[in-house]
Amino acid sequence: MGFNLCGTAVYLCIIPIPRRGQLFTWRGRSVAVCVGGPADTLFCDVSMTGEPGKYDPSFNGPIHKRSCTDIICCILFMAAIAGYMIVGILAWLYGDPRHVLYPRNSTGMFCGIGLNKGKPSVFYFDLLKCATATNVMAAALNGLQCPTTQVCVDQCPGDFWILSPGAYLPTAKAKDFFQQQYCVPSFNLSTTDLVCSLVGFPVFSFASFLCLPAFLTVFLFLPPHTPSGLLIAMLLSLIFLLLLRFMAPVLVWLLIVGVLGVVAYGIWHCYWEYDNYKNSSTTISNLGFTTNFSAYLQVKETWLAFLIILCILEAILLLVLLFLRTRILIAIALIQESSKAVGHMMSTLLYPLVTFALLIVCIAYWGITALYLATSGAPIYKVVALNSSTNSCLAINGTETCDPLSFNSSAYMSCPSAQCIFIKYNTEGLFQQNLFNLQIYNVLAFLWCVNFVIALGQCTLAGAFASYYWAFSKPSDIPTFPLSQAFIRSLRYHVGSLAFGALILTIVQFIRIVLEYLDHKFRAAQNPCARFIMCCLKCCFWCLEKFIKFINRNAYIMIAIYGKNFCVSAKNAFSLLMRNILRVVVLDKVTDLLLLFGKLLVVGGVGVLAFFFFSGRIQLPGNAFNSQTLNYYWVPIITVIVGAYLIAHGFFSVYNMCVDTLFLCFLEDLERNDGTVEKPYYMSKNLMKILNKKNKVPKGGK
């Protein structure tokens, strides 16, 4: 059979080719059929994509007899974890835990202990100043103080009050209008004419020690029926995933037709606008450049350009749909098969809770360690003028140290706003001098642990779903507890490989963090050329991070199936995908479109239901909930919407991993097997029907 191969990197054949995976020699180079099927004509260089997989009679699913992989990286990861624990212990020993457990007043003294024992809460005279003003001097000295008086109180006030006119009478006594416990301790109401506040707000105690105004508690205390909305989101996500087994073809084609319809409507609208401005004398050349972009919509050339662009886009979409319809059918069949796999292994939908719990542990450990490192060393207090704009306070430059316990404000009569405030912690000593390096290590170890947890989840789910695909008779051949077996295999044999992939991703993410820090630090001093280079670097590393995540994801699938090390698995996965690049693109886009529609359906449905419920348009029987008690009903609505999105994302991430795993198994099945009695296909009958393939029945069999 003759072939007419054209080009250098990609070769096209004019006449139909034999089965997929067959090798040819052309100009001294091995060329393989990259995409199967009787109508496929795509060839590729084996040196770039690797040789197709060969039949292995002993392979029937994820290999159980495997050995540990990437041991060196495993040891390195364990050493990093041990070092991370040592850093946490040192931070705990040198840090001041009281900064986590107790609040402080304006003088830096802790509430609830020492002289303020029995006063566990801190009360801000004007909390809004904390958000609207910052002390310039304190900020320049590496400190951040709220420019309002803070006192330790035994109980947060719960009444709204305002100073009555009688308080301004000459005979008025301060003790008759104010409460001593809410005033600065140095003020004695029985002997002073000073006042400590003019207006008081009803406040609530939050986190056992912080007094917040009541109007802010709307963000902290949600209605009791808010968790019901999250439960509904969970049920909708589960129902949607299970129904994809039956509705996937209808939904996919509806979405495709919907996209084509939207573009077609855009073409019609652009033509209608162009026809309206066809006789207009205004052109783009007459209009010139203007910041009023709505003016360009009054020009016919704008709508003509939009019309041409949309026509080209519609033509491309129609051609893609025409020539890739078979691959779209394969993608739909894989989505249906994924729904079956999830239905047979419902425990996989609960695994995101394990990942979420481990991520919470990592984040909590990182935050506590960073806080304790930041509080290492003795606190340094300095005399600072909270109102530095006053001429009488110019002499206070923030260089004089002080003791908050013995500070006497009467020594600074010319500057009434002078106070002894906390600035920073002492940086002398070997441990304190290396705090910056320890914080860098804290960030690196945190990123590595987070990426490892995500990698562990992906490898575990991949092993479970691969067990489903390679079960010849489903569901009888599916192993018992496939998720637990995959989790144990990943931890027992492949900690090093997972840590290797996580380390590569961590390095790229850390470089991105450094670039963001440098960009923020030198943004004002950068010239246009430097800003352009910085923007290009950030864009390149963003793309590199996305590519590494793609490689890692597929490498973890191959690790879960074959038990090879990270580099070999990544190479095999990448070569396998490159030999089926068209199928990869089609499946990825179809799956993304379908899951996006599912997320919008779940989040939109729960959001609309929450709006009607919390706004009072839907009433529950009885007096279980009264919407009139809500001053801001949009707060629980937003909370429910965000929670619904996170829940839907967790469910759909499992489904997306299932699709990717079954897709790689499907490609391996095509390369390794041919449907004979010795090498039967493991794919579903629907997939074999789409590809015009079938398993041969042995003689005498049914």
UniProtKB/TrEMBL annotation:
Subcellular localization, as worded in the UniProt entry: Apical cell membrane; Cell membrane; Membrane
User: Which keywords accompany this UniProt record?
Assistant: Antiport, Cell membrane, Glycoprotein, Membrane, Transmembrane, Transmembrane helix, Transport
Note the InterPro entries from the entry: Choline_transptr-like (IPR007603)
Which residue windows are transmembrane per the record? 75-94, 194-222, 228-244, 251-268, 303-324, 345-368, 445-472, 493-515, 555-574, 594-614, 634-655
Q: What is its main location?
A: membrane
Listed Pfam families: Choline_transpo (PF04515)
Topological type in the membrane = Multi-pass membrane protein
> What is the recorded name of this protein?
Choline transporter-like protein
Tell me what organism the protein belongs to: Scleropages formosus
Q: What is the lineage of its organism?
A: Eukaryota, Metazoa, Chordata, Craniata, Vertebrata
Q: Which gene encodes it?
A: SLC44A4
